Fold each of these.
Amino acid sequence: MNAPAELPDLSHLWMPFTANKQFKAHPRMLAAAKGMYYTSADGRQVLDGTAGLWCVNAGHGRQEIVEAISRQAGIMDYAPGFQLGHPLAFEAATAVASFMPQGLDRVFFTNSGSESVDTALKIALAYHRARGEGQRTRLIGRERGYHGVGFGGISVGGISPNRKTFSGALLPAVDHLPHTHNLEQNAYSKGQPAWGAHLAEDLERIIALHDASTIAAVIVEPMAGSTGVLIPPKGYLEKLREITSKHGILLIFDEVITAYGRLGAATASEFFGVTPDLIAMAKGVSNAAVPAGAVAVRREVHDAIVNGPAGGIEFFHGYTYSAHPLAAAAILATLDIYRREDLFARARKLSGAFEQAAHSLKGAPHVIDVRNLGLVAGVELAPRAGAPGARAAEVFQKCFDSGLMVRYTGDIIAVSPPLIIDEAQIGQIFEQIGKVLKEVA
Ligand SMILES: Cc1ncc(COP(=O)(O)O)c(C=O)c1O
């Protein structure tokens, strides 16, 4: 396989979301990264078709970010964020707000997408309570939704393997919308599929069942990535917004993947023209150089809590590392790069060539669907009889062995490169996947 000559002891590290035994038998080790490429531990160049884990939007090893982090580490390594502040935290919040849709200009910092989701859910509960509607505690997620791994996130999430071990401990007041994935109706859609807006109307059924007065928030990924690239049908998000507004229910967009250019705009909200009440983000906010996340909150929601009846601390929530100085420095440097290099416009411009290259896989062996939006593509494969996911796992391995990093969920291959990619590299990604598809049974 690709094991370097000398490996460290692999036994102590329990790897996240990994088939540990399999990995340790055949390790895939990364050693360095620059621009569009990783270098594997055995010295091969690997084209990054996934921006790490959908997070390195400005490309790897950006000098400005490296310098900002190391400079800040020398000035002040850490500052407590409870009852104390430091200027970079406020500057980073101002910078984040400047990328958000109008009105969502209050920012709470976290360290990850999971924390951002749980923070957003808590803000929703606190908001209703501050307004005297504390009985609004129900949270509505969606089947096949991925909202990280906190107890809140897996409760509103809809991926069964992430839930079943913990099924007795999930949040009690949760319901789920149906997912929107339907190959019979939407296979090989380019951009948003035409069919499926009516699935948002299921929210009215859920509201009729529980009564709006018990529901705090609806949370969805505007475009679901981790669960296999599910693109929202035309009109779907608009309908969710309309129904939630009508019933006084907060709408949370989980933009952990979509914020910062993935679709060719600062946020999916901007891209789709649908503004939620809260946006959960992470990943691209710091180009993944330092763990960081945030929740952008509509000003009225923030004000209801902060100017509400409570005295002293208004919101009993926060992390030791909320707005960590190194994260704040990385965020400021990252957002500066996005703006200076106009990277979201670049993603938008490249999305046509990306779409064309992705759809060139129509007709390739095993392919049953190709779907795309912005710089994201999903290539769905027919599962092997009795072994779901095995074919995509083999494609992933063979791509890695031949110098290309992709991701897979079930039998869906996902591509989501850094926004600095060029047209030739886009072509290379899909040609390589096509070649590998011919090699797998
Ligand atoms: C939509 C969404 N929400 C939440 C998360 C969780 O983020 P993290 O792994 O940083 O906790 C992810 C991670 O991929 C995600 O895609």
Amino acid sequence: MTAAAGPAGGPLKVSFEFFPPKSEKMAEQLWRAVDRLQPLGPAFVSVTYGAGGTTRQRTHDTVTRIQGDRGLTCAAHLTCVGAERAEVDAIARRYWQAGIRHIVALRGDPPEGEDSYRPHPGGYENATDLVAGLRRVAEFDISVAAYPEIHPDSPSSQADLDNLKRKIDAGANRAITQFFFDADTYLRFLERARTVGIWVPIVPGILPVTNFDQVSRFAKACGASVPAWLAHLFEGLGDDPETRRLVAASVASEQCRRLQAAGVSDFHFYTLNRADLTYAICHMLGLRPAAGGAAGAVGDGTAEAQPGGGNTDV
Ligand SMILES: Cc1cc2nc3c(=O)[nH]c(=O)nc-3n(C[C@H](O)[C@H](O)[C@H](O)COP(=O)(O)OP(=O)(O)OC[C@H]3O[C@@H](n4cnc5c(N)ncnc54)[C@H](O)[C@@H]3O)c2cc1C
């Protein structure tokens, strides 16, 4: 990607998150999304690790194929759930041997049916512990999760920030946030993180919304708030996917452009394996595929925001 600077920030840099497909049909959807977004020249793409570690092999296969066949730099998500340290270390080593150099290190959520998280016997206790373990395995680039609106298990915003600091001190070199809808929430969080001495990039996680009910459920589960204005914008559009997509593109691009105006230049998109809405938002931020399909970006990132189409059906 060549430089498309945000008004106050550095060169525009995007990353895209995918999940490993479960069926042939889902695999087709994933590869369509990867192929559509690849020309935008992401800094990296990442592949999630299913709750409870259920997608271990599928995550591995998807990561190595995206990097091997498509030539994109790929990050593998890895959690502490359901495995002993030695097993997790072996997974990491296998990634290293396959040329994967970036891990998104996470604690993970409790397995289905359990309310609270308990470390696996002999397993890594939490993300901090996992980051330290990965550092012993190899010189990975390590990203961790951050929560502008506090993780639901955390007793306070200060405790949550202290936890993020521990993850960075253990060796992580980037944080990616949980999704949020109010740009100020992220900007305030960033300011607070800097005051406690967290200086690594904290990349905003952007979730383009077109299925409002589904996103409300996601938000409830992870402690993100859904502003009343957002609910109002999607009101009455349950049976109108076309208008929903236009509204969704407008909402997400406005959110990103507010962040860009405040100097943010890195964005991580939760694509849910659909490309069009993410592509449209990147376009509005100023990113362009270079001739010949290689990475490229033009403009100064100040293009007019306008509703655009996408087929994301979050
Ligand atoms: C960008 C991103 C990607 C994700 N990808 C995946 C994925 O692929 N697969 C998946 O299963 N989940 C994923 N998740 C969800 C994540 O696993 C959950 O949010 C999980 O509940 C917490 O993981 P963590 O790594 O933030 O945990 P941790 O940083 O370990 O902390 C979790 C909570 O416990 C508290 N805590 C931890 N240690 C202490 C301590 N010593 N004292 C007090 N409090 C403590 C923290 O404050 C925090 O509130 C992702 C989340 C994000 C933001």
